Amino acid sequence: MKKHQITIFDIAKELNISKSTVSRALTGHPNVNEKTRKQILDLAEKWDYQKNMSAISLITNKSNIIGIMVPEFLSSYFPNIVIAAQKEAALAGYTMIISQSNESYETEVLNAKVMLSSQIDGLIVSITKETLNYDHLKVFQRKGIPIVFFNRVCEEMIVPKVIVDDYDGAYKAVQHLIQTGKKRIAHLAGPNSLSISKKRLNGYIDALKDNNIPIDEDLIISYDLSPNKVKIYVTHLLNLPNPPDAIFAINDPAAIEAIQIIKTHGLKIPEDIAIVGFSGDYASALIEPSLTTVAQPVSEIGKVAIKMLIEQINRNVEDWKAVTTMLKTNLIIRNST
Q: Is the pTM of this model over 0.85?
């Protein structure tokens, strides 16, 4: 049986009234008899009538749909941002299309094409660890569709961005480790392709320098954020002739995995080796020992990104403003240090 989408024509024909009357009733226009309005709304509900958003968008030049693209859903970080963003979008009358790229550039490109075909009014995005080419995102700008980056941003695109002070968060984390008496602090860093990796590495290095602790390149390991790689690198650090007495990890998932590995080596945390993560993942409070972490204001990130995007949507293209909003982090000290 051929699929048929119920239209205002079907409702008008069934009730023997004009389609303009049906349209006015469905859009809440006051100039409709109450009895007629009730008949229309009851039939629309019975037949599961859905507004034709494509047709509406052709008339209004707006779909009232916002897209969000994130690199992964493995930790609680991005899902919590999505939840906050979705709530903020709904308050402003927008629905949201959500996609995650599983840290794959190719998937991100495909997701971007889906967003374009869905006629979204705007896009907020955090790029994958593999993303080095941004042509699939620049096309949104060319088409007059605003973009706001958050967390993992594209530095070469002059658009609004929502970030946290990654440098300061890393500096505070390493400073805390030094204050607890640690001196051989390793850094499990992220890929060099991400600006957050560079900023957190710089914060780590400057904290050591400011405390007259020499930089040991053997204690700095960049990795591709794959969970299975953490075991390799942490084991390598523990097997060094002069192993570290602390690890500052690029994110909480890496720090949590490091805790599990260290425990299998019979070492005590934090006595033998202390651990600090970054992000404030939900699991950081549940792991044993609980993880000291640089917490990010995830809900605020989602809300601010949506507000900035809607501001762009409501402006003419020539009036777009490429504002960067930097939010503060919060060091949460727990048992791992």
A: no
